[in-house]
């Protein structure tokens, strides 16, 4: 992490070779600068990183990266590589990381996500922090964006203080915006608009966290949301 005058300027993330379990352990680390409008972060250390503009026809590969904080010492780091030629099915990984820093290499757990035998669980979302432009026709500018916080359930639990520190599971997937998906339906109604979702859960505490990046039909970023909730209990 780098700072200037007390303000955080950015963070240095692990190399993507770690997430892909590459034999190349000397891959370059990734520096995420807050001056980059595609890097959106919140107070608990969670962030979402990806392109501000995505050319669906010419871009060979797009990488979306998300950090989801579960406790002060545990986080899920998800990466999703997307290609339009693959039908927007992400090639995804989730890396479970722990602090202090010295324990990262000792406790590193990397899982390929989107496994068929790991169905995405039903989640009851309770809170959302969302950032978007005041007018959906405006081009993306994080410095001018509007932040909103919403309670999505009348019965909210203390999701920001998990009782357990069990292992994490993760998924990345793309979905079109519809009436069933209300995160950005109020600002974008085009059936060609889509969300890129990165979701992680802790089964032991039943806590779920997710980040969602919303793109319009031309590939322009229109908003980012961070959600907190709990896994629904089976009837």
How would you portray this structure in words?
- With 235 residues, the chain is an all-beta fold.
- Helix content is 2%, strand content 45%.
- It is built from one helix and 15 strands; from the N terminus they run E-E-H-E-E-E-E-E-E-E-E-E-E-E-E-E.
- A six-stranded antiparallel β-sheet has the order 4-5-6-7-8-9.
- A hairpin with a 2-residue loop joins strand 1 and strand 2.
- The longest helix has 4 residues.
- The protein starts with a strand and ends with a strand.
- 32% of the residues are buried.
Q: What is the approximate shape?
A: globular
Strand content: 35-45%
Which class of secondary structure composition applies to the elements? mainly beta
Q: Please describe the biggest sheet, giving its number of strands, its sense, and whether it closes into a barrel.
A: 6 strands, antiparallel
Query: Termini distance?
Result: 45 Å
* Element-level helix/strand string: EEHEEEEEEEEEEEEE
What are the segments in which pLDDT stays under 50 over at least 5 consecutive residues?
1-6, 102-110
In spatial order, strands of the major sheet run 4-5-6-7-8-9
Q: Indicate the percent of residues in helices.
A: under 10%
What is the overall pLDDT average?
78
Give the total of beta strands: 15
The count of helical stretches stands at: 1
What is the C-alpha radius of gyration, as a whole number of Å?
Answer: 17 Å
